[in-house]
């Protein structure tokens, strides 16, 4: 995301440009957020922006299918699934004659910049169109349809692609638009099916989309703890029928009341023969006699509202797409905007398309190991972790080490997923694994018990903390903690929690000089809805909390559609950290989000009231303002309500909503389930390695700084940061890291929400492009 100075420079940088945006191929949740971002960023830089309805078909047909957009054209669409501008398969565009008509329609509107949101087929079609552009114009001149001067003016077509595909089957990007939302739909079904399957002791075979890519099946299998998984990239070994039935039978014999099998629609065996969900069902019924049902999810996965991740991802990509068009030259190859470690990046379109085709080629030629590698490191990592955790494998030998796992601080979704994977991978390593109830307080009281593989079955989708969690810090009960560390011979301590977990481990490390028993290996998995733990970009639970806040705000906005001229002031949690408020603000298209990290004054509040007053004179007669609970000592939620009510009297009325603890509740999102699972595995593997390094003469002695770390995701890398090093970059008074990556998102929030429309222009209905607009981003908005 560009800095504020860079955005200032961009103002009017696109004057004279015309940009068109279309959606093509299968729809995906989040496409509307991308259309909104392209439109508003385009208007910000001074360009004309056109919406092309019905995809390439609308481009070929022209006429009313190509309409100029204004700021309000894309209001209130961010929360809608599908695509409001329509998408259609178009045979005509696959022919040169069809592309000739499309070129004529673009030239008619002076459009030489095209943003295409779709899959690899749609993007490949756009690149062909671009490569033929000069020849198409030449033909139009020859036919007398356009003049040579018009051809000169429109001599080059710039193309940028955004990948909209629920399958996540495009190489070069971490996630495609719609994938996260599709996973939400799948997990909602899995959670619902689990309850009925347990009631009747049934086996369910769930078929999910993914004709050529097993990403949805893989991640939903990992997030649900499925008993068996079929993906096209890694067909089962010959004789899989016997092994699968044996494992399903073992699971039941150990007391499980259900089995879940997930199958991608494109599943095949080693010879390339399709494996159908009905074949799997019949196999289970015939061999095991289990009551078995098939559920084919189908287009349910495409439907529904986009998740918070998809809304933010699409908004970032849409803004970057306009930047790419601004900077494009005739020599710039067509690019695709991808997502890589929290950043939007531009990659050569056809190189990414080629790698995507290489995966399919590897699968066709039965080079399955290579196909998984070509899918990317994340896909391979998911597959390996699923295989590790799905079925118990006896440890080759019993290790001399014992570990304890506890939760500390407020509950956060994903904690249980992390505990489950940590317990299971620890058992695989041969360790003795203890769990502790009620955090450090429970450790002091000796609430410690050994657990086995099946003790954590069914924990993946559970919200809150199954172990119980408290905010008590070790310094209040240090001697009793030391006593129980000695009593249970604990040599590794895995603490899953928020700022208190980090601070607690830091206190234990600083007490090592006084208590030799604390010279053990320690690791913190950050888990808090506030996302305020140093050493990581994301904490477990923050994605679930953002989605919970977003869903509440969607409902609040919907209620205002009937009651016009109303402004809602919504208070979010997060302590002093404004992450929750900022990301929710982007996801719901809020007018403002006040946070502690971005100081604001009474002048900013006044400007915001004026903005909302102007907004009430348009068709969008509602407002939504978010306030982080500790954003300002004096400008409280009540103060904002009184100020807005007084200043908006006669123009709009106000309502307060304090979201409170609903942000901590609910089932974890697919992201938090998988993130917790991965962090649990990686933390225990790291601790096992450290224990080996510090083990000598039958005992563990770990007193160096690098034996007590916070595990976290930094961009694309899982990193281990010593708590003693993180102490130097922590604001303990406000419980915050001194630097926070997400502050870069503030500019996007302000820009996409608060473009100042000229009222006279709106009222007169003349929403044509003008050369000078009043464009302002104001501090605090």
TrEMBL record:
ATP binds at residues 26, 89-90, 119-122. Transmembrane segments: none annotated. It catalyses: beta-D-fructose 6-phosphate + ATP = beta-D-fructose 1,6-bisphosphate + ADP + H(+). It is found in: Cytoplasm. Residues 1-391 are annotated as: N-terminal catalytic PFK domain 1. The active site is at residue 167. Residues 19-324, 403-686 form the Phosphofructokinase domain. Its main location: cytoplasm. It is an enzyme of class 2 (transferase). Allosterically activated by ADP, AMP, or fructose 2,6-bisphosphate, and allosterically inhibited by ATP or citrate. Keywords: Acetylation, Allosteric enzyme, ATP-binding, Cytoplasm, Glycolysis, Glycoprotein, Kinase, Magnesium, Metal-binding, Nucleotide-binding, Phosphoprotein, Transferase. Substrate binds at residues 165-167, 202, 209-211, 265, 293, 299-302. Mg(2+) binds at residue 120. SUPFAM superfamilies: Phosphofructokinase. The keyword Ubl conjugation does not apply. GO terms for molecular function: 6-phosphofructokinase activity; AMP binding; ATP binding; fructose-6-phosphate binding; identical protein binding; metal ion binding; monosaccharide binding. GO terms for biological process: canonical glycolysis; fructose 1,6-bisphosphate metabolic process; fructose 6-phosphate metabolic process. Its cofactor is Mg(2+). InterPro entries: 6-Pfructokinase_euk, ATP_PFK, PFK_vert-type, Phosphofructokinase_CS, Phosphofructokinase_dom, PKF_sf. Belongs to the phosphofructokinase type A (PFKA) family. ATP-dependent PFK group I subfamily. Eukaryotic two domain clade 'E' sub-subfamily. This is ATP-dependent 6-phosphofructokinase. It comes from Junco hyemalis (Dark-eyed junco).
């Amino acid at each position: 995301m560009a800095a504020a100075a860079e955005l200032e420079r961009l103002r009017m940088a696109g004057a004279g440009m015309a940009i068109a945006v279309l959606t093509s191929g299968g729809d995906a949740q989040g496409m509307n957020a991308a259309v909104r971002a392209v439109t508003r960023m385009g208007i910000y830089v001074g360009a004309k922006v056109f919406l092309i309805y019905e995809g390439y078909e609308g481009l070929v047909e022209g006429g009313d299918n190509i309409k100029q957009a204004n700021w309000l054209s894309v209001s209130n669409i961010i929360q809608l699934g599908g695509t409001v501008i329509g998408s259609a398969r178009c045979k005509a565009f696959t022919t040169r004659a069809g592309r000739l008509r499309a070129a004529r329609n673009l030239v008619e509107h002076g459009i030489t910049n095209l943003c295409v949101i779709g899959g690899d087929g749609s993007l490949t079609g756009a690149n062909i169109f671009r490569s033929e552009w000069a020849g198409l114009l030449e033909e139009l001149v020859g036919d007398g349809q356009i003049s040579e001067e018009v051809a000169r003016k429109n001599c080059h077509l710039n193309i940028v692609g955004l990948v909209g595909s629920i399958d996540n089957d495009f190489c070069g990007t971490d996630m495609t638009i719609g994938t996260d939302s599709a996973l939400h739909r799948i997990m909602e079904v899995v959670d619902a099916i689990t309850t009925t399957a347990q009631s009747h002791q049934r086996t369910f075979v769930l078929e999910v989309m993914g004709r050529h890519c097993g990403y949805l099946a893989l991640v939903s299998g990992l997030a649900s703890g499925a008993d068996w998984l079929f993906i096209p990239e890694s067909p089962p070994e010959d004789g899989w029928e016997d092994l699968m039935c044996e494992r399903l039978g073992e699971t039941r014999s150990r007391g499980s009341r259900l089995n879940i099998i997930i199958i991608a629609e494109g599943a095949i065996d080693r010879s390339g023969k399709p494996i159908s969900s009905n074949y799997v069902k019949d196999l289970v019924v015939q061999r095991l006699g289990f009551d078995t049902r098939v559920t084919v999810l189908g287009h349910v996965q495409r439907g529904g509202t986009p998740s918070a991740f998809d809304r933010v991802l699409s908004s970032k990509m849409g803004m970057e797409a306009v930047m790419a068009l601004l900077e494009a030259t005739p020599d710039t190859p067509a690019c695709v905007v991808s997502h890589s470690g929290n950043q939007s990046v531009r990659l050569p379109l056809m190189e990414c398309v080629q790698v995507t085709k290489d995966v399919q080629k590897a699968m066709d030629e039965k080079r399955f190991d290579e196909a998984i590698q070509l899918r990317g490191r994340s896909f391979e990592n998911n597959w390996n972790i699923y295989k590790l955790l799905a079925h118990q494998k006896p440890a080759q030998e019993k290790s001399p080490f014992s570990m304890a796992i506890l939760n500390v601080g407020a509950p956060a979704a994903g904690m249980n997923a992390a505990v489950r994977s940590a317990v299971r991978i620890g058992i695989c390593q041969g360790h003795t694994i203890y769990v502790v109830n009620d955090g450090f307080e429970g450790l002091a009281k000796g609430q410690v018990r050994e657990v086995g593989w099946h003790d954590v079955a069914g924990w993946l989708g559970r919200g809150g903390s199954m172990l119980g969690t408290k905010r008590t810090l070790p310094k209040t009960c240090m001697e009793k903690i030391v006593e129980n560390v000695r009593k249970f011979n604990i040599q590794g301590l895995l603490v899953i929690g928020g700022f208190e977990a980090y601070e607690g481990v830091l206190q234990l490390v600083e007490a090592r000089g006084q208590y030799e028993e604390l010279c053990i290996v320690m690791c913190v998995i950050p888990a808090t809805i506030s996302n305020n733990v140093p050493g990581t970009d994301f904490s477990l639970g923050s994605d679930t909390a953002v989605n919970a806040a977003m869903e509440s705000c969607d409902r609040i906005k919907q209620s205002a559609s009937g009651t016009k001229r109303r402004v809602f002031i919504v208070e979010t949690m997060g302590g002093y950290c404004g992450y929750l408020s900022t990301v929710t603000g982007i996801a719901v298209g809020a007018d403002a989000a006040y946070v502690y990290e971005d100081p604001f004054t009474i002048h900013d509040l006044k400007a915001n009231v004026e903005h909302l007053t102007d907004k009430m004179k348009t068709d969008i007669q509602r407002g939504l303002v978010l306030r982080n609970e500790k954003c300002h000592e004096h400008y409280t939620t009540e103060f904002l309500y009184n100020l807005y009510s007084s200043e908006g009297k006669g123009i709009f009325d106000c309502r307060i909503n304090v979201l409170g603890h609903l942000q901590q509740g609910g089932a974890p999102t697919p992201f938090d389930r998988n993130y917790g699972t991965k962090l649990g595995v990686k933390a225990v593997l790291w601790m096992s390695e450290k224990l080996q390094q510090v083990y000598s003469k039958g005992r563990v002695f770990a007193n160096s700084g690098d034996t007590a770390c916070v595990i976290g995701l930094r961009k694309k890398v899982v990193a281990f940061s010593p708590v003693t090093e993180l102490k130097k970059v922590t604001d303990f008074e406000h419980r915050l890291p001194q630097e926070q990556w997400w502050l870069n998102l503030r500019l996007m929030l302000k820009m996409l929400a608060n473009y100042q429309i000229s009222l006279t222009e709106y009222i007169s209905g003349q929403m044509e492009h003008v050369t000078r607009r009043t464009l302002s981003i104001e501090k605090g908005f």
